[in-house]
Specification:
about 270 residues; alpha/beta; Rossmann fold; 9 strands; about 40% helix; elongated
Length: about 270
């Protein structure tokens, strides 16, 4: 199995641009995530594990939610952004869920957003996350399915064709180079069932993404970081990629978002 270094994440947290990308992801997805966590009943005194903490907004929300006597452990392969957070209930730790064990039977909640789709061995990851739960504790996992990432027909045939080509290049480079499954969202609920969780269920969220709004920005910021990989693999030439990045800021740009699939279940008592 590849090491964490060999499984280089496509969007490096140490890059200045990644901070902006993480904040944009938070704007797009935090409200839905928080609603799902509230529905699981997370509250005062809970011990929570935030896996792949990214920009840390959910870790901070959890830390406030479980205060004053609860605690949150936030982990990531690269904690560059997380290390800047400060909260008395929050601990930050560098951790690779495929290489390092976690404390067993310790957490009331384990949450992972945009993590599992990047991993080559999701079965091992899920086994470790579930083992970290107390009996009866909740696992909440969220991942995207890009099946719905299609252009708005109002853009016209030429712009729709351009968007489709951009999306195909995006998928190809992160799948080939980084092992990402752009269609993992549809498999998430079944994987939680197969892992032995009980009381499982799921929900999907989607919206329109437009230029000048967070959806258009996340396409732009993602393509900027993937630019060299797309060019190196001759999926598009440099001029085409630069035009695609600029396209995301065109006032006519509009697409349906990927579906953010959330699935949850309890560790059997």
């Amino acid at each position: 199995m590849p090491t964490s270094e060999e499984r280089a994440y496509a969007y490096e947290n140490a890059r200045a641009a990644q901070g902006e990308r993480l904040r944009t992801l938070e704007t797009l997805f935090d409200a839905g995530t928080i609603a799902e966590l509230e529905a699981r009943g997370v509250g005062r005194g809970w011990r929570c594990l935030e896996v792949g903490g990214g920009g840390g907004s959910i870790a901070l929300w959890l830390a406030d939610r479980v205060a004053p006597d609860g605690a949150v452990l936030a982990t990531d392969l690269d904690t560059t952004v997380l290390e800047g957070l400060s909260h008395p209930n929050l601990e930050v730790r560098v951790h690779d869920v495929l290489e390092h064990d976690l404390p067993e039977g310790e957490f009331d909640l384990v949450h992972a957003r945009l993590v599992l789709a990047w991993l080559p061995d999701r079965r091992t990851a899920l086994r470790r996350l579930i083992a970290a739960l107390k009996p009866g504790g909740w696992l909440v996992a969220e991942d995207l399915d890009f099946a719905s990432a299609v252009p708005d027909p109002h853009m016209g045939a030429a712009m729709c064709a351009r968007f489709t080509r951009i999306v195909e290049a995006h998928h190809a480079v992160i799948a080939e180079r980084h092992g990402f499954d752009p269609f993992y969202g549809r498999r998430l609920a079944g994987d939680l069932d197969d892992a032995g969780l009980v009381d499982t269920d799921f929900r999907g969220r989607a919206s329109m993404w437009r230029a000048g709004e967070p959806g258009g920005e996340i396409w732009r910021l993602s393509l900027e970081q993937l630019r060299d990989g797309i060019v190196d693999r001759e999926l598009m030439d440099a001029g085409e990629v630069d035009a695609a990045i600029a396209f995301c800021t065109d006032p006519r740009f509009s697409s349906l978002s990927p579906v953010m699939m959330t699935a949850w279940g309890r560790r059997p008592a």
